[in-house]
Amino acid sequence: MTAQRVAAVVVAASTFAAIGATTVADGAATERGVPTKTIPTAPSTSSAAPSGLLATGIGLPAEASLPEFFPVVNDVIGATGDVAGELAVVAEVPDGIRSPDGSSIRQFSVDYDAVNERFVATVKFTSDATAEDTVVFFQATLTAAGFIPVADSGAPQDGETSRQLSFENPNSPLDDAGVDVTVIEGDTTDIELTITDSIDAEVLNAFTGWADGLPLLEEATPLGATITVSAAPGSGDLTLTISTQFAFSEYTPDELAAALRSALPDGGFSIDVGNDAGTGTTLSVRHIAMEDVAIEIGADETATTTLTVAGSVTI
């Protein structure tokens, strides 16, 4: 990690720690190169947790605050010799997924489903290898690791520039577990790697704390979460977007919306009085430091009331 990027994370963490402040100053972005990281031989994905604390199975602690996300997601972005190993801090990725030479991660996202105990992780990165060599690399390494080839779009024709490969993972307890690879030929070789596999439901414990200050969450059970991180072109700035869906058993959607409106403002969240009509199950809210904050209340297929809260922050 470059010294500048470390400093940016420290500044961001300090800003959020001072949650009593009423404004967050915008710092001018500085040009930075791609950071080079040292990849540990065995990424820490143990589900063990200190006595008395909830486990998560990933590199984030239970009830992680926003500042606790920053160093974790920051380390994933940039040059790496192990793309899947980088993702191992946010998802329990299977072994055997190797990276071609000169890989550099630009964006990743992970969608977690606690009910079905599965995740879908997608990472976009570039490689110094040619597109043809990249295809051969994934065909050889994934097959050698025990993944079963199930689809190949074939060499691009008629001006097309991409090729898609799909592999099943026969060693996973999840029926549709596998790896999909899209290789795009251009000035650089662009790769989109998607991993679908199982998770323990405890992974959602990591995504219940970032919205601290929103009332009533202590009465809820997490159902799912999504995390997306992308690097701004030509800048060291990263945009982190988090979304968590909670289930409530004691409220109808209208009752939950009314209870939240009655309880806000609280902590970092407040009702946006200029844009919230005061009725309905979509709440217009503001956050002390996050952008694009959204709260949606509804019901799932079992008629359980759900609340989805999402927001973005640039670090």
How does this model look, in words?
- The chain is of the alpha+beta class.
- The chain has a domain at 77-108 and 116-207: 3-Layer(aba) Sandwich (Protein Transport Mog1p, Chain A), CATH 3.40.1000.
- Helix content is 18%, strand content 32%.
- The chain has helices spanning 3-17, 66-76, 83-87, 131-144, 253-263; strands spanning 78-80, 103-113, 118-127, 148-152, 162-168, 178-184, 189-198, 221-231, 238-248, 269-271, 282-283, 285-287, 291-299, 305-314.
- Strands 1, 2, 3, 4, 5, 6, 7, 8, 9, 11, 13 and 14 form a 12-stranded antiparallel β-sheet that branches. A two-stranded antiparallel ribbon has the order 10-12.
- The longest helix is centred in the N-terminal third of the chain and has 15 residues, at 3-17.
- The two termini are 14 Å apart.
What's this, in brief?
With 315 residues, the protein is α+β, with helices and mostly antiparallel strands.
Topology of helices and strands:
Blueprint: H1 3-17, H2 66-76, E1 78-80, H3 83-87, E2 103-113, E3 118-127, H4 131-144, E4 148-152, E5 162-168, E6 178-184, E7 189-198, E8 221-231, E9 238-248, H5 253-263, E10 269-271, E11 282-283, E12 285-287, E13 291-299, E14 305-314
Helix pairs in contact: 1-2
Number of strands: 14
- Per CATH, the architecture of the domain at 77-108 and 116-207 is 3-Layer(aba) Sandwich
Roughly what is the average pLDDT, rounded to an integer?
Answer: 83
- Mass-distribution shape: elongated
Give me the number of helical elements: 5
